[in-house]
Amino acid sequence: MKSADGKMYSTDVADQEQLFRLVQSIPSPKVEPIKIWIAQVASERIDEMIDPEISIDRAIDMYRRKGYSEEWINQRLQGKKERKKLTDEWKRVGVKEKQYAILTNAIYEVWSGMSAKEYKHYKGLKKENLRDNMTDTESALTTLAEVATREISQNEDPATIAHNVDIAHRGGKVAKVAREALEEQLGRSVISQENAKTLNPSETIRQIDDQSQED
To answer: Which of 11, 129, 201, 208 is the most buried (most CB within 10 A)?
Structure first.
């Protein structure tokens, strides 16, 4: 890895799973709270595998704890539902899962003018989920583009990735037209640099964090 002096050095690194395994191997009372947390998360994950609805309820609760409004949460869940319908359609017409990103970028590039990666960079994001950092309008336009893409695909039954990309572009165009019409009425762009940190009331998040510490 490159060091501060610009030279490359052999460096010990670990991914997330390996770090957790290292934590579990440390024989220290100070690490015990983290070990307990890891065991709790593992138990919750098993519960979710048995009853997937638990994961949905937990996601809703997590969004609330982060300060999202009920309206935003409902829209996010609807967007998730439509996204699933779209990927199911892609699967039906033979698109491989590793190609989903290509089609998703095709949709974003048309309606927003940016790829998903560029959109995340524009909002100052790294690993965060792009959809979790959209305004209501951005989320609605993304969903519109995905619904349009799915409808066109169902109508045409594409047999090649090139045809699927073309359909993704056309689905994105539907949302682009809606975006431009709205921006003409508003006199401003609806593509926002706002993210979860700026969209959610900081006071709400602070109160939740304080309450968590008290609990």
So the answer is: 208
Per DSSP, the three-state class of 103 is: helix
* CA–CA distance, 126 with 197 (Å, rounded to integer): 13
For residue 80, what are the CA distances in angstroms to 48, 68, 84, 87, 161? 18, 16, 6, 11, 23
| pTM of the predicted protein model | 0.70
First to last CA, the chain: 42
Tokens representing residue 100 in the block? 């989903």
Residues 186 and 98 occupy one common structural domain: yes
One domain, residues 43 and 145: no
Task: Give the pLDDT mean for 175-186.
Answer: 97
> What's the pLDDT tens digit per position in 18-29?
888 888 888 888
Are residues 101 and 173 both part of a single domain? yes
Look at residue 201 in the predicted model and tell me its pLDDT.
56
Alpha-carbon span 44 to 37, nearest angstrom: 11
pLDDT given at position 209: 46
Q: Are residues 40 and 108 in the same domain?
A: no
| DSSP per residue, 22-74 | HHHH---GGGHHHHHHHHHHHHHHHHHHH-THHHHHHHHHHHHHTT--HHHHH
